[in-house]
């Protein structure tokens, strides 16, 4: 894709001797090259007219069509890298910034490197497209393999971008950057054109191609083929178009050895991409076993995430993974969900709203309270909710909570659902959401979000919030506390620990003049892992991690 701040320089025009006494070309814009000059050299020197099998107008249209396809493929590679890095490493803003900035930088380097290739523009373009098809097409599979089998991304600094990701972006961007000057050279060899007009045509084809690629990725490639096969298919299209353009239009300007080499190289690239596409499902299963262990039972891609289930049988605790991260561990999930739900149920609790929690485990704890008459669950992923209903292991763990007639389910983003003002007032709101450090979830920990939650709460209502790790990420945790205060809520902080050192930071908030007291509902169900005394200890443990003076997080200024 062409970047608007770095337009390619047009090739230099050289005056040539006239053939048959002609003094200029048909349009008076420059000299026409004689047939003796056009026939020289295997790759065609700079400024040499191409020997075309088609009329110049048709040939020029086909080159611009090639620009269109190359731009579409290039943007798909960029979006593929952003999506894969965000899925595997989280923090989508950081990953998008790294991918795009490194690729644009590499494209600039590629444009400079293309100066040395312009004398053999056709052969060089064919080689570049074959290499780009291989690198770009296999990029998603390579990143996934590194993540699954090593688990060590090798960040440039702590929590920084992956060295592997940066290397792939550099290679892909370098090859994309080489395309543009070579395409300009090929267009000018077909028919000389004033530089401004040639650049305008090139830009138009490039930007329209980028639009098509940008729309095809989220609406066609990702939902229909998935990350891995979508990238491989894009690489195949890239290789076919590049080879057809060079060998079909400019084959007469290439020596026999160059034509044979390009043909063999593209056949090998297509064979590798095709083999990888056929084996993509087997590869994904093997990577899943490396990532989740031999107990992997379910692995599916929903609209917003990758969901995997392990274990769930006798003697094998269930594990629920979202985008490769352990979200639910059957060994200690009860400790977390009881601590999240039961303190909030200490008071009136006839109507309850659960935001997130599509796995049904927080819902299970809510339904243990007999005074509950209605529970509204709002989760953005309906396929996760369906899995929680139908998977034997997960349904058994959540106590078949979704079969309870008191439960209603809304498939919607929690922020948008609250903004629409549906339902309410609720006595209890349970925010069982991903960690605030995840950029995609930052809006669900903003002052605006808590303001919307407060609107649907009854005057005596209480809000329970999962806020990440108090000990591992104290600044993010206490930023949640500052944000709750900025929204007019008073909150009590507490933290609990589970198996293998896992730890969760929680808040219980209300709109009253003081923070609610942490306790359990008199006469209510007795949690298995939680007692009044342990809640007091959990409050003291959270207090020891306190970070004072933190500003609130907002939609315009997220601070996690």
UniProtKB/TrEMBL annotation:
It catalyses: S-adenosyl 3-(methylsulfanyl)propylamine + putrescine = S-methyl-5'-thioadenosine + spermidine + H(+). It is found in: Cell membrane. Residues 277-511 form the PABS domain. It is a multi-pass membrane protein. Keywords: Cell membrane, Membrane, Polyamine biosynthesis, Spermidine biosynthesis, Transferase, Transmembrane, Transmembrane helix. Residues 1-12 have a biased composition (Pro residues). Gene3D superfamilies: Vaccinia Virus protein VP39 (3.40.50.150). Its EC number is 2.5.1.16. Spermidine binds at residues 337, 359. S-methyl-5'-thioadenosine binds at residues 305, 379, 413-414. It is an enzyme of class 2 (transferase). CDD domains: AdoMet_MTases. One of its GO terms (molecular function) is spermidine synthase activity. Pathway: Amine and polyamine biosynthesis; spermidine biosynthesis; spermidine from putrescine: step 1/1. Residues 1-46 are annotated as: Disordered. Its main location: membrane. The chain crosses the membrane at residues 61-87, 93-114, 121-150, 162-187, 199-222, 228-250, 262-280. Pfam families: Spermine_synth. The active site is at 432 (proton acceptor). Residues 13-39 have a biased composition (Basic and acidic residues). Belongs to the spermidine/spermine synthase family. Homodimer or homotetramer. Catalyzes the irreversible transfer of a propylamine group from the amino donor S-adenosylmethioninamine (decarboxy-AdoMet) to putrescine (1,4-diaminobutane) to yield spermidine. This is Polyamine aminopropyltransferase. It comes from Streptomyces fragilis.
């Amino acid at each position: 894709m062409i970047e608007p701040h770095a337009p390619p320089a047009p090739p230099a025009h050289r005056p040539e001797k006239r053939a048959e006494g002609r003094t200029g070309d048909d349009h008076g814009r420059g000299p026409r090259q004689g047939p003796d000059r056009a026939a020289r050299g295997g790759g065609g020197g700079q400024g040499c007219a191409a020997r075309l099998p088609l009329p110049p107008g048709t040939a020029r249209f086909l080159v611009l069509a090639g620009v269109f396809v190359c731009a579409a493929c290039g943007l798909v590679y960029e979006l593929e890298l952003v999506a894969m890095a965000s899925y595997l490493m989280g923090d989508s803003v950081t990953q998008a910034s790294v991918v795009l900035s490194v690729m644009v930088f590499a494209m600039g380097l590629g444009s400079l490197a293309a100066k040395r290739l312009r004398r053999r523009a056709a052969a060089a373009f064919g080689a570049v497209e074959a290499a780009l098809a291989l690198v770009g097409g296999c990029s998603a599979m390579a990143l996934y393999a590194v993540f699954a089998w090593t688990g060590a991304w090798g960040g440039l600094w702590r929590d920084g971008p992956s060295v592997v990701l940066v290397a792939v972006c550099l290679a892909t961007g370098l090859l994309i950057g080489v395309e543009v000057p070579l395409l300009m050279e090929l267009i000018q060899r077909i028919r000389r054109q004033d530089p401004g007009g040639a650049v305008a045509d090139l830009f138009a084809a490039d930007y329209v191609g980028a639009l098509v690629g940008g729309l095809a990725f989220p609406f066609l490639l990702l939902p229909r083929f998935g990350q891995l096969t979508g990238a491989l298919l894009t690489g195949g299209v890239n290789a076919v178009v590049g080879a057809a353009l060079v060998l079909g239009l400019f084959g007469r300007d290439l020596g026999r050895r160059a034509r044979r080499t390009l043909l063999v190289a593209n056949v090998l690239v297509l064979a590798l991409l095709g083999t990888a596409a056929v084996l993509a499902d087997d590869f994904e299963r093997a990577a899943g076993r490396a990532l989740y262990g031999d107990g992997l039972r379910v692995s599916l891609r929903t609209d917003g995430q990758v969901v995997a289930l392990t274990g769930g049988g006798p003697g094998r605790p269930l594990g629920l993974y979202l985008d490769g991260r352990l979200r639910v561990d059957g060994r200690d999930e009860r400790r977390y969900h009881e601590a999240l739900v039961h303190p909030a149920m200490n008071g009136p609790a006839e109507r309850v709203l659960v935001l997130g929690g599509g796995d049904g485990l927080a819902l299970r704890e809510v339904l243990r309270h007999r005074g509950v008459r209605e529970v509204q669950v709002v989760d953005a992923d309906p396929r996760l909710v369906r899995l929680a209903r139908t998977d034997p292991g997960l349904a058994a763990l959540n106590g078949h909570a979704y079969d309870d007639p008191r439960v209603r389910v809304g498939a919607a983003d929690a922020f948008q659902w609250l903004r629409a003002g549906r339902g309410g007032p609720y006595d209890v709101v349970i925010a069982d959401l991903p960690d605030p450090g995840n950029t995609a979830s930052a809006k669900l920990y903003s002052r605006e979000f808590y303001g919307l939650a407060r609107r649907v709460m009854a005057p005596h209502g209480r809000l329970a919030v999962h806020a990440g790790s108090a000990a591992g990420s104290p600044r993010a945790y206490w930023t949640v506390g500052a944000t709750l205060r900025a929204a007019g809520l008073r909150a009590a902080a507490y933290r609990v620990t589970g198996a293998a050192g896992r730890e969760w930071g929680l808040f219980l908030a209300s709109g009253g003049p003081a923070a609610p007291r942490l306790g359990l509902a008199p006469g209510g169900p007795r949690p298995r892992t939680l007692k009044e005394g342990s809640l007091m200890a959990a409050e003291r443990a959270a207090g020891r991690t306190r970070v004072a003076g933190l500003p609130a997080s907002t939609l315009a200024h997220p601070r996690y």
